[in-house]
Structures are given as structure tokens and as C-alpha cells.
């Protein structure tokens, strides 16, 4: 059945944030926000599933308004589950892996980064979240200009890709997988704790006829790849919010 003929509670639209609802590390544009809430939300159940924590979602999507506007919010790949503004579930990587494994991993990462030659280094190289660790070779306390500079450098020198290869080799016997997202970092989490984790919660509690996912990092190794290619979703690759708006307009007949 065409999406235009489905009722609101029969179709779920899930969205990445960076590069999908906003430009990378930018705030949602008022024009897009108005289009989304006035045109899209009345036609479909809507949710966001991002690699970042809830506070970063607030920063990019105009604050706590999203708690009222989105039916589902899945920070940290869905390891935190929020429905209608209330947290209903949470998973924890520390309990899953245990302190000895975590310390071994952190020590290796810090040692690797101490010997890594990159144009700049700032601060906060490892960030803990409930369901993952985020590793940033230049440090998350960088300016937008420094972020953009490293993104271009990384395309040429494959800094993150090479580091992930080394980690896979060193921790081959540990339940971990790696996913590049955004411009400057990559996520580390147990197998299966990618964005498809959000689908576990949805399937256990709801019966949608169609689930659509919109994301930009859909290539293998990108943090949208698993959910974009999952048999339970209809994937839409985008590069900017303009792509997202265009596809939504066609999909919903707006």
C-alpha cells in the first residue's frame, strides 16, 4: 500500500539527526522545523534515532521541545528509549563489558592516540554514554573550523578507519563493533547495539505496517548502515535536510 494511504499509526518514520534533520553539528533550521511539525508529523508517527546522547539532541533540535513533538526518541543508538517524553528503558555498556575489559580498552586507546600524528589535538578523546563509547582522535573540544579541517584531513588520511582496524585486531576476542559517524569521531559498542537496537523496542510494543529510516551515513562502516539495510525498514539515503524534505514530500504526497 502506498505510504500516502496509510494512517498515522500505521507508518513510522525514523530519522538520524546530523546530516538528516540538520546540517552536521548545526541547529535545525526554522523553515525545516516548521515543515516537519506542520506537514509531516500529522501524517505519520515520527521518531529520532541518533548516536549522540539526549543533551546533544536538545542542542541541535531546538531544546526540550522534541520531548513533546516526537513520538519516539532513541538517543545512543536506541540504548535509551523515550516515548512521549518519558524514559521507558536503558541499557548500560559498563555492566555489559565489565571494568577490566573497559580499562584495557581505554588504556590502549589513550596510548594509541598519544602516538598519533594529526594536525591538531584538543580535549575529551573518549566520551562515555550509556550504550557506547565515542572515540575522537582530535578531541571533541574543537572549534567548528577545526572540526571541518579534520574531516577533510580524515578523508585523505583515513585516520579513523586505520584506528578502527587496529582496535579490531587488538580486541578481536571482545564483543565490540565500530561505527564511523559525524566528522571527527567513531562509536564503539557491543555487537547488535547499533541503531537497529531501537527496532527491538518498537517490535516488542508496536505493529507498524511500514517503518522508514532516513540517514546519511548509510555506507558500510557508517553508523546508519545497519538500520538502513535492515529488512524491517525501508531505507532512504540523504545528504542534507533538503534531501529529507524532498523525499518526505514525495513519500507522503505533501
Automatic annotation (TrEMBL):
The active site is at residues 16, 18. GO terms for molecular function: metal ion binding; phosphomannomutase activity. Pathway: Nucleotide-sugar biosynthesis; GDP-alpha-D-mannose biosynthesis; alpha-D-mannose 1-phosphate from D-fructose 6-phosphate: step 2/2. One of its GO terms (cellular component) is cytosol. Keywords: Cytoplasm, Isomerase, Magnesium, Metal-binding. It comes from the Eukaryota. The keyword Magnesium applies. It catalyses: alpha-D-mannose 1-phosphate = D-mannose 6-phosphate. Its main location: cytoplasm. Mg(2+) 2 binds at residue 230. Its EC number is 5.4.2.8. InterPro entries: HAD-like_sf, HAD-SF_hydro_IIB, HAD_sf, PMM, PMM_cap. Homodimer. Involved in the synthesis of the GDP-mannose and dolichol-phosphate-mannose required for a number of critical mannosyl transfer reactions. Belongs to the eukaryotic PMM family. NCBIfam families: HAD-SF-IIB. This is Phosphomannomutase. It comes from Drosophila lebanonensis.
